[in-house]
Amino acid sequence: MKTDSPAPLRLLDSLDAFTEHSGRLLAWLNVAMVLLTFAVVIMRYLFDQSSIFLQESVMYLHATLFMLASAYTLKHNDHVRVDILYQRMPGRGKALVDLLGTLLLMLPVVIYIALSSWGYVLDSWAILETSPESSGIPAIFLLKTLIPVMCALLFIQGGAEVLRNGAVLLGWRRKEQSGDVEDRL
């Protein structure tokens, strides 16, 4: 696609594409989680067997999906929000609220979580923390690593949201090959 859009909009496209591809890839964890849960139930109720490893695998997959898909959820504006006034605002008003919310709330909280979790994650890596269960997954340090990774992904998508809402406030438009102006940034 030929474009003469401003550089920030091209960067926005790249950030959005990264988040979109990540989210679509992570969606496959749902399939694995369902299959493992099914296997755990079948083993337990049909064969009277249990597997701590499989049960923890479901937990790891759920945590991975929940933590790493948060940026995808942000991109698609699917986070929980109270929008009593927001839904009645014009596009520029929504962009201003979203921009301020991202800059003053979301990004500072993400930075705080990343910084405050760093020692916790490093300590876990230093001892290669394992499951307290003898037959559990010997990699709790990997599970804890999801915290700063989630923060990095949210920070990237937060940057995309700043660009998107800034572009709306500045009146920037994306031009397609035909010269028509796209409404959605």
TrEMBL record:
- Segments passing through the bilayer: 25-46, 58-74, 95-115, 135-156
Gene Ontology MF term list? transmembrane transporter activity
Topology class, membrane: Multi-pass membrane protein
Its subcellular locations are: Cell inner membrane
> What InterPro entries does this protein's entry cite?
DctQ, TRAP_DctQ
Record keywords, A-Z: Cell inner membrane, Cell membrane, Membrane, Transmembrane, Transmembrane helix, Transport
Can you tell me which residues the record assigns to a coiled coil?
Answer: none
- A Pfam family cross-referenced in the UniProt record is DctQ
Residues covered by the Tripartite ATP-independent periplasmic transporters DctQ component domain = 33-164
Q: Name one GO cellular component term.
A: plasma membrane
Relate the assembly described in the record.
The complex comprises the extracytoplasmic solute receptor protein and the two transmembrane proteins.
Q: What does this protein do?
A: Part of the tripartite ATP-independent periplasmic (TRAP) transport system.
Which family is this sequence assigned to?
Belongs to the TRAP transporter small permease family.
Q: What is this protein called?
A: TRAP transporter small permease protein
